[in-house]
Automatic annotation (TrEMBL):
This is Homoserine dehydrogenase. PANTHER family: HOMOSERINE DEHYDROGENASE. Keywords: Amino-acid biosynthesis, Methionine biosynthesis, NADP, Oxidoreductase, Threonine biosynthesis. NADP(+) binds at A15, G16, L17, G18, N19, V20, G21, A22. The active site is at K211. Pathway: Amino-acid biosynthesis; L-methionine biosynthesis via de novo pathway; L-homoserine from L-aspartate: step 3/3; Amino-acid biosynthesis; L-threonine biosynthesis; L-threonine from L-aspartate: step 3/5. The lineage of its organism: Bacteria, Pseudomonadati, Verrucomicrobiota, Verrucomicrobiia, Verrucomicrobiales. It holds the Pfam family NAD_binding_3. L-homoserine binds at E196. It comes from Prosthecobacter debontii. It catalyses: L-homoserine + NADP(+) = L-aspartate 4-semialdehyde + NADPH + H(+). Residues 357-431 form the ACT domain. The keyword Amino-acid biosynthesis applies. NADPH binds at K111.
Length: 440
């Protein structure tokens, strides 16, 4: 392969000049010479689509480059690569489809779009003969997509455990280390530019779940339907649970778990989960993300870095632009996603199995523990430890019971929770979370 000289110019259209878009524009400029030397391509943003021409911005873009019509990026024959950073699943979908049909390479950081419509978008990319690249869609600056597509391509993926939402990790870290309340911690994360435009996506767990769907689909070769993913957010976590978790030797992380069982059924879930304090994932703090990938040949590998924010995420977009430049300079690659597990199946949510943490507020009278353990035993759920923290007893005659439970099917656990709520001695809503021991 010969290196072209002088460098080829790659003409890019950028849709979205928010936090990440501005970072791409700024950092492409900052490292232009280095990128040109490494890729033999001079990557030039030619047109930028924004929602409001008059909005103050982080970067100075010549007025002549700005437009409010996304169609301009598709209609302009000169543009070879369209970068979609507007988010959402409506206009972004129209833009990506139109760009592919116009034979332009697409780069996107839009995890919701890929999680919901990835299957049809990659099929369209295949038909149109142009790829979609999406490194920025998962784990901000960590190049985890390349890891799965290239670095670990020879491995069967046994499991992935990921902390893949910077906002939630920031919130949990600040609640647990600085004693902040949930709202204050969320406001800080928004101020630092980690949160999505609609932070509900972050705190509901769905942003991480979208990323987990992408990682699972790359690992197992078929698109996992969102309805088969068990998702819970951080918005209901109480400070008292962080305190008990610590007392039991754990911390709470919004953890995404992806794994296939012996029958090949793929489980995908994203929930607040107790993680042992002694495990390396417990020390992933603030907006940092970490993805622990276990492959049948390589064993365990761990990838760590900033999972949100302008510069880290723009680093991933720039990596995709360089990949696009390589295609344009040296020739075609695959569409971005190669389906290879068309007969794969995802595991029904109720059949997923884990240990659990359970905190109940109960009447402080004799016989309560016997009633609780009977309800659990009837669903074949074993108790591994119980604590009744004296410092939480109140004067209204109730007390807390904190139980650690052995492996149980989620279906059995949900039935047990309903039965526990119906007991006269149980007050209010039980608080429960999965526990991952992360051993083996
Ligand atoms: N809102 C996301 C996060 C940004 O907090 O992780 C990166 O996807």
């Amino acid at each position: 392969m010969s290196v072209p000289t002088p460098p080829r110019t790659i003409h890019v259209g950028l849709a979205g000049l928010g936090n990440v878009g501005a970072g791409v524009f700024k950092n492409l400029e900052q490292n232009r010479d280095l990128i040109r030397q490494r890729t033999s391509a001079d990557i030039r943003v030619e047109k930028v689509v924004v929602r409001d021409l008059n909005r103050p911005r982080d970067v100075e873009v010549p007025e002549a480059m700005l437009s409010t019509r996304w169609q301009d990026l598709v209609e302009e024959a000169n543009i070879q690569v369209v970068v979609e950073l507007i988010g959402g699943t409506t206009t972004a979908y129209d833009l990506v489809c139109a760009a592919l049909r116009a034979k332009k390479i697409v780069v996107t950081g839009n995890k919701a779009l890929l999680a919901e419509r990835g299957q049809e978008l990659f099929a369209l990319a295949e038909t149109c003969g142009v790829p979609i690249y999406f490194e920025a869609a998962v784990a901000g600056g960590i190049p985890i997509i390349q890891v799965l597509q290239e670095g670990l391509v020879g491995n069967r993926i046994l499991s992935i455990h990921g902390i893949i939402n910077g906002t939630c990790n920031y919130i949990l870290t600040r609640m647990s280390q600085a004693g902040l309340d949930y709202q204050t911690a969320l406001a800080e994360a928004q101020e630092k530019g980690y949160a999505e435009a609609d932070p509900t996506l972050d705190v509901s767990g769905w942003d991480a779940a979208h990323k987990a769907i992408i990682l699972a689909s790359l690992s197992y070769g078929f698109w996992i339907p969102a309805s088969h993913v068990h998702v819970e957010g951080v918005d209901k976590i109480q400070a008292v649970d962080l305190k008990f978790a610590k007392r039991l030797g754990y911390t709470i992380k919004l953890l995404s778990v992806i794994r296939a069982d012996e029958q090949g059924l793929v489980e995908v879930r994203t929930q607040p989960t107790l993680v042992p304090l002694s495990h390396v994932l417990a020390s992933v703090s603030g907006s940092f993300n970490a993805v622990l990938v276990s492959g049948d040949i390589v064993g365990e590998t761990l990838f760590y870095g900033r999972g949100a924010g302008q510069d880290p995420t723009s680093s991933s977009v720039i990596s995709d632009l360089c990949e696009a430049a390589a295609v344009l300079v040296y020739g075609a690659r695959h569409s971005g996603f190669v389906p290879h597990g068309l007969y794969g199946k995802s595991k029904p949510i109720e059949d997923t199995v884990s240990h659990y943490y359970l905190r109940l507020t109960v009447d402080d009278v004799p016989g309560v523990l016997a009633q609780v353990s009977t309800v659990l035993a009837e669903r074949h759920i074993g108790i591994s430890s119980v604590i009744q923290p004296e410092d939480l007893e109140d004067t209204s005659g109730s007390t807390s019971l904190v139980l650690m439970l052995h492996d149980a099917r989620l279906g059995d656990m949900l039935q047990a929770l309903s039965a526990l709520k119906a007991l006269a001695c149980v007050r209010g809503e039980p608080s429960w979370m999965r526990v991952e021991t992360l051993q083996g």
